[in-house]
């Protein structure tokens, strides 16, 4: 069938034309992510933006609502209000990922399994860097402070910061964002684990961290990764046994 025949019969797929608000939101979004509008900078007034884009006030405000939902701007209402740019944090991505996981019935053990696969990669990457000795000293100092925390929420935050710093030092931003997003999804679960952690587990973890850092400092990336993978799989097994069949949605609704 020819293109003309397709068009006559309505068989051709319709092309979706973006709404005016979506076009405006995309233009402002691009300026923010490129740094043309710095964080906390005020956007031009509504009147200026309406003139610039040639749109109505309702279309502009709909664009603002889109950008607010993405946490790219904050809007203060009133005579002294206006829109200001902001940089979204990792909770934006984790919120949507967590929602998808809830819909798909993803098990908590599945999320911990994914983290167990990613953490060893960071150790391998860090072991390949020339500055690995100084990096491991910094991580061990962080862990030393972490070990002195008693509040479960503080300990959970400390663990998260420890591993995000590990990924920073490893030098792979994509892995850091992926790991951070997965961690954010199970943040409350990590707090619960910290609350019920035992002195025996704490001591074993300290020894494991020290060994992994020694291997990294020595440039033994493969050995460090293999060792830490084994440690994380033990954690994953504990999660699977403790929360048999428990899903991400269960953790969210009970948190």
From TrEMBL:
GO terms for molecular function: DNA binding; DNA-binding transcription factor activity. It holds the Pfam family GntR. Coiled coil: none annotated. It comes from the Bacteria. PROSITE patterns: HTH_GNTR. InterPro entries: GntR_C, TF_FadR/GntR_C, Tscrpt_reg_HTH_GntR, WH-like_DNA-bd_sf, WH_DNA-bd_sf. Keywords: DNA-binding, Transcription, Transcription regulation. The keyword Transcription applies. Residues 18-88 form the HTH gntR-type domain. Transmembrane segments: none annotated. This is GntR family transcriptional regulator. The lineage of its organism: Bacteria, Bacillati, Actinomycetota, Actinomycetes, Pseudonocardiales.
């Amino acid at each position: 069938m020819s293109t003309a025949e397709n068009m006559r019969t309505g068989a051709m797929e319709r092309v979706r034309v973006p709404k005016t608000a979506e076009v405006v939101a995309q233009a402002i979004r691009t300026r923010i992510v490129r740094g043309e509008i710095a964080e906390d900078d005020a956007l031009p007034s509504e009147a200026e933006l309406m003139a610039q884009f040639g749109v109505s006030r309702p279309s502009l405000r709909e664009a603002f609502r889109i950008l607010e939902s993405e946490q790219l701007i904050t809007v203060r209402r009133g005579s002294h209000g206006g829109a200001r740019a902001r940089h979204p944090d990792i909770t934006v991505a984790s919120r949507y990922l967590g929602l998808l996981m809830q819909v798909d019935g993803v098990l908590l053990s599945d999320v911990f399994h994914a983290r167990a696969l990613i953490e060893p990669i960071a150790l391998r990457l860090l072991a390949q860097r020339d500055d690995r000795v100084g990096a491991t000293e910094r991580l061990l100092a962080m862990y030393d402070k972490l070990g002195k925390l008693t509040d479960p929420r503080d300990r959970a935050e400390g663990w998260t910061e420890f591993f995000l710093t590990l990924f920073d030092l490893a030098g792979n931003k994509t892995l850091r964002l992926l790991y951070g997003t997965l961690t954010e999804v199970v943040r409350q679960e990590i707090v619960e684990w910290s609350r019920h952690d035992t002195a025996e587990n704490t001591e074993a973890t300290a020894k494991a961290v020290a060994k992994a850092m020694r291997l990294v400092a020595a440039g033994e990336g493969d050995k460090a990764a293999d060792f830490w993978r084994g440690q994380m799989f033990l954690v994953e097994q504990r999660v699977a046994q403790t929360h048999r069949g428990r899903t991400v949605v269960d953790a969210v609704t009970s948190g």
